[in-house]
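From the shared-data thread, chain only:
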Amino acid sequence: HQLDLLDGFGGHEALREASASAWRAWRELCERKEALELSEEERLHRVDLIKFQLGEIDAVRPKRGEEDRLISDLPRLKNAARLGELAESAYAALYEQEGSAEESLARAVKAVEEMARYDAEAQALAVNLASVRAAASDAAEALSRWRGAETDPAALDELIGRQDKLAKLKRKYGATIEDILAFREKAGRELSALENHAAESAAIDKECAQAKKRLDAACAVLHDARHESAGKLAK
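Structure, as tokens:
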């Protein structure tokens, strides 16, 4: 609490964050080094485990955003036949059956266009009705992609199977596909380090020493700033 007050007085927030960031970088390298300092038996066991984990993930090959697509596709595939029936019904009401919306709109447009010959104020109404008729025609055309649709058991089974595979990965490696991919990336780096542990250990030793120097320097700057601020407060 006293340090917070002192840092607030001296405006040391940026220096505090710099030292904290340097510590995090140094600590991450230390953890990587510790992971490499395993016995040979432990190292080989860890390599086998990571290879198994990567194999499970790579066998499924999860992709970012695919869960949203699966959630969207499932109701459509499950209810394809019903969608087809509804589309047929809507299309008939718009375009095919006697007294359809298209026929009614066509008669309305013709009548209002004739009205406009005698009253200019009806011209705008004729334009609006023509636009409605065109929209109905477009809607009927759009309905064609659902007309005649039938349930595809193979496609439905494939989608459900895909969801099951993703659910199994999520139980083991993360709550979302992004988490799973992040796990895979981290595990891949660890595997590479374990398989090349001698060279990796030497490289990490060098990086760790450099990170420690940066940490010491950042802490020294913060320490000096705090010492100066404490002197000002004492006066």
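The mean pLDDT is 84.
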